[in-house]
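Minutes, project huddle
Topic: does the predicted pose make sense with magnesium ion bound?
PN asked that the exact inputs be recorded in the minutes so nobody has to dig through chat later. Recorded below.
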Amino acid sequence: MKRTQIMKAIEGKAKSVLLKGWVHRKRSSSQMAFIILRDASGTIQCVIKKDDVDAKSWECATNTNIESSLVVEGTLKKDERAPTGYELVVKKLRFISQGEPFPIARDFSPEFLLDVRHLWMRSTKMTAIMKIRSTVTGAIHEFFRNKGYHELTPPIFTPAACEGGSTLFEVKYFGKKVYLTQSWQLYAEAMVFALEKVYDNSPTFRSEKSSTARHLAEFWMAEMEAAFMDYKECSEIGKAEVKFIIQEVLKKNQKELAALKRDLTDLKLAATKKYPTITYTHALKLLKKAGMNVKWGKDLRTIEERELMKIFDTPIMVTHYPKEIMAFYKPVDAEDTEAPGPVCKAFDMIAPVVGELIGGSERSTDIKEITKNLKKEGEKLDNYKFYLDLRKYGSVPHSGYGLGVERLVQWICGLENIKDAIPFPRTMDRWTP
Ligand code: 4AD
Ligand code: MG
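Predicted holo structure (tokens), as shared on screen:
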């Protein structure tokens, strides 16, 4: 008999089936044994009656440890009490591999679960998160491909910073020094002069020197860049992307969201409502009304982003951050007259749970301005020669943004810590397994 996955067997209402999977739970008495069998599709209760199976099957059912792998033959039987409406009456049971006692017992600390992440990946929680993550990354590709964007990946070894030198990872490179990429952006800017609309989802590295619940040292950033586009149009694409991803998850992952006990109120609003855009200066006024004083010119911190999320019931775009706190490539916008100092054609999306989810901007086309900013940041101009070239040979207005994939997964799944949004997290104090 050919192997069927548990949910396929249930949906197909086949009578006789052969299943392969792992022991999720088990209990037995002198005449009966019950095994909850798990595979990637779901779980099913297997009922083993001592008198109805051969001696080897009974031995297997009573001696198995949690997470042993099994092959099971039997017949599906309707059972209203079973979570899927069916149970399996077992005819034959064999080990594929008899497992040693599984190290994850009842009481465990988050740190221990990270130590045994390679085994904890099998848990209902991690399985649900990873299925949702797969929907999220699939939706990113679908969103941009439907809009005629080309997928192009950046180099991971780079000679220079994109987002400031303080979070660069240095790597030995044939006797020289290079860095792990902080963002594909500078290369995306080169590519739009050929392909006009490009996107990617790639590993990104930041040597974040503090452990927070929303920072990783290695994370995936989904970025886009487009020629002939201003920051306003670009920020609307960011809103549409997030909305599309949430809609896809709500369509495809109801079972996983339920397993995570996720209250869907904010996700449903984010899937349907319009997301407002406000300026940074206006955001400070709203925060002041809520009793939070932020000095104009200071970046918004997590607590302030959280406060904004209490005022709005969807993600918001905050535009026109002060130039002082912006990267070298962001152009000044003279149009925001409300602001007491120079501000940029830049935007961040703030979302529930995680705060900053997207960072983006129009890109300066003024070679003198870029050079001045780079010098001010203490960067070697030589490393940016290729970037400055882009302003010399047929430059056009262009914009782009990056979305933090793990932050989006963290929000959608309602996770306390970003570490659970990626299979094997890397932070300042976690690089194994
Ligand atoms: O705001 P950031 O630094 O923007 C850039 O890197 C731009 N060059 C992107 C672009 O315009 N193409 O990062 C973008 C997003 C953040 O909003 C956040 O969601 C995520 O990347 N991010 C992190 N996620 C996890 N861990 C970290 N250490 C992160 N740093 C940024
Ligand atoms: Mg940012």
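Observations noted during the meeting:
- The chain has a mean pLDDT of 96.
- The chain has two domains: 6-97, 114-421.
No decisions taken; revisit at the next huddle.
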